Amino acid sequence: MFLSGLRVDRGRGRVVAGCAAVLAALGVLLWWLLPLGEPEPRGSVTFSTGVRDGVYQRYGVLLKDVLAKDLPQVDIELRTSEGSQQNLDRVASGEADFTIATADAVAKYQRDGKPGAERLRGCARLYDDYVQLVVPDGSSVRKVSDLRDKRVGVGQNGSGVRLIADRLLDAAGLDPQKDIESVPNGIDTVPQLLERGDIDAFFWSGGLPTLAVQALSERYPIRLVPLEHDLIQKVHATGVPTSHYRSAVMPPDLYPLAQSGLPVNSMAVANLLVTTDRIDADLVEGLTRTVIKSRDDIGNTVHPAQLVDLRTAIYTAPLDLHYGARGYYRSVKP
């Protein structure tokens, strides 16, 4: 009986072992077949970029290509715009989900109490825009105040360029509505207008180098007008939110044919990747990760993107970081 019982126990052991093996196999199969862990972000989002040929628009196109690989379940629609101010209107109203805007435009949007301003959130500080005042090489314009009675491209009405141009003109003692002929065109058209003689100068604020300015310098003799240090001080003294502006110098080899080997004094302001508190945290975390990770790839084509830095990306003032972006930065903190 002992031996018989032993044979029964062994038989049961084999059955138990067999069941365990089957369950293990099923577990492996389920692990492969079923989506475990956090679900991937999915759906459709709209990204408001900028004017054609501008850095925002070119950056958005390249970012969309990278996101197609990193977030394959998310469909990105790009929409061109007049620039920072229109971009903020779109995101705050829910017309767009993500955008790029300058820090000064964000500060003005908040100060003006625009609808939805309290919902705006930052994902990353990207790169700095530099103010570029471009004139024909033979122009008599040597400083901003010399623009009196001139035809000046000041940027489209909804652009960050227009915001900065108006502030610089005001600091120089010029009324943008009376003392110059303001031409509300952007970087997609002002180079051609200057080349044809339809305008005498244009303002641009963008990452360095701006290809449209570079291309113009290679086919038409132009010069960059430096911004005087005391002029930038006057901008800061106007009482509007200008703390996001800083004095900066454009390197001498930026536009070799337009600078004669000389650096150019300018003013810089940070660009921010912006969304709202309505956007899912996982989506924001994934998009922020892609922006940081793709810096070098995108930077090979859009050179300002090379300046995106993990150490400074979290500084999105005047906006609070979105919760999803905060989660990403915490995950990569050393």
Number of E-state strands: 10
N-to-C SSE string, H for helix and E for strand: HEHEHEHEEHEHEHEHEHEHHHH
Number of H/I helices: 13
Cα-to-Cα separation, first versus last residue: 67 Å
Rounded to an integer in angstroms, the radius of gyration calculated over CA atoms is 27 Å
Mean pLDDT: 89
Which residues sit in consecutive blocks of at least 5 with pLDDT less than 50?
Answer: 1-8, 27-37
Tell me the fraction of residues in β-strands, as a range. Answer: 15-25%
- Report the structural category: alpha/beta
The profile of the biggest β sheet is: 10 strands, mixed
| Oligomeric grouping of the chains | single chain
Outline: globular
What is this entry, summarized?
With 334 residues, the chain is α/β, with parallel strands linked by helices. The protein has 13 helices and 10 strands. Helix content is 41%, strand content 20%.
Any descriptors?
334 residues; ten-stranded mixed β-sheet; globular; disordered N terminus
